[in-house]
Amino acid sequence: MIRVKINVLYIFIRESKSIYVDEPYDFDLITNIVEGLREKLIPGTPEDYVKVYTKCWDFEPDKRPTMKQLVDELKRIKTKIEDSITVDDPVGNYGSSPNSNNTIDSSINNSFPLIYVGKCYEDGYGINEDKTAAFEYYEKAANKNFTVGQSKIGYFYYNGIGVVKDLKNAVDWYEKASNLGNIIAKYYLGNLYLNGIGVKRDRHKAFELFAESAEGNYSNGITILGYCYKNGKGTSINKKKAFELYVKASELNNKVAQYNLALMYEYGDGVKKDKIRANELYKESAKQGYPKDVMFVFLEVSKI
Fold first, then answer.
1. Model-level pTM greater than 0.85?
2. pLDDT tens digits, one per residue of 36-74
3. pLDDT tens sequence across 137-171
4. Which of 58, 151, 184, 269 yields a CA-CA distance of 20 to 30 A from 14?
5. CB-CB contact of 138 with 17 (8 Å)
6. 234-263: burial string, b at 16+ Cβ within 10 Å, e else
7. Quick one: signal sequence residues (predicted)?
């Protein structure tokens, strides 16, 4: 039977980052995991979910839940949450308001199982990869006003993953998620407005969305906001601001920001020329595979 470690998915969905973001990715990390290193518990994680992903970390592989057992347990948790909400509960009724935090919290708790399973199908975690099934689970979460699901559905529609490509639906779902504050959806929607894809080109609208995404500390949002300032897209050219944003995103390990910052250092564009720093940044970006010719550029600059 296939057994899985679904806990990594919960943290990816909740935090949008690696579970070992503060750990070096080398042989020592692998050894430490084998010897008992585990991710830190995220404050606010529902107790039932803690129990689920703790089981998935059991040292004895045979004691870890199978995919079927995991899905059954997540469904049980979902049912438990739904059963705890009564129509006579004034808090529950208050939560029916679309602007209520209670609605958002309830939606999150009810939708995590759907996102879990969708992610498993999308990437083939413990089960055969099935993009169509992934789309269906994300869609269920999206219809419950869970912004992660809405953003994923927008992405699937835009790229034609598990569903026929449909730019109108992509825009609609990105807008829904953006209106509910999803910083990733704001980034993707901003790109559509910037390039006039599925919507009328509106660089000012794109800039606003990128700024909101950046405010949420989303590294891609910060990077593209820097791009807008550097190239005057939806705003006046401000290379000092562009430099500051690229630095901030680079510190978040964004490979595109590292590359763009390297270019500024190499050519002294908006900053004092520094070939050594440029080389360092090219190398950091190249290690992450961006872009394919970065290593070539790095080697060429190194000769100068």
1. no
2. 444 555 555 566 666 766 666 565 666 667 766 766 776
3. 999 999 999 999 999 999 999 999 999 999 999 99
4. 58
5. no
6. bbeebeebbbebbbbbbebebbbbbbbbbe
7. none
- The residues facing 66 across adjacent strands are 3
Residue 206 CA to residue 196 CA, distance in Å, equals: 10
State the CATH class of domain 182-251: mainly alpha
Q: First vs last Cα of the chain: how many Å apart?
A: 57
Residue 266: pLDDT band by 50, 70, 90 thresholds?
very high
Specify the DSSP class assigned to residue 145. Answer: T
Task: State residue 3 phi and psi, 5-degree precision.
Answer: -120, 145
39 three-class SS: coil
Residue 134 and residue 155: Cα distance in Å, rounded?
12
Rounded average pLDDT over 257-285: 95
Residues 6+ apart with CB under 8 A from 131: 121, 122, 156, 161, 162
* Residues in CB range of 233: below 8 A, 6 or more apart: 194, 203, 206, 207, 227
Task: Specify the amino acid at residue 283.
Answer: K
Q: Give buried/exposed letters for 158-176 (b at 16+ CB in 10 A, else e).
A: beebbbeeeeebbbbbbbb
Residue 63 contacts residue 32 (beta carbons within 8 Å): no
d(CA 277, CA 108): 43
Task: Give the closest residue to 228 by CA, choosing from 183, 190, 258.
Answer: 190
Contact 118, 134 (CB under 8 A): yes
Q: How far apart are CA 271 and CA 268, in angstroms?
A: 5
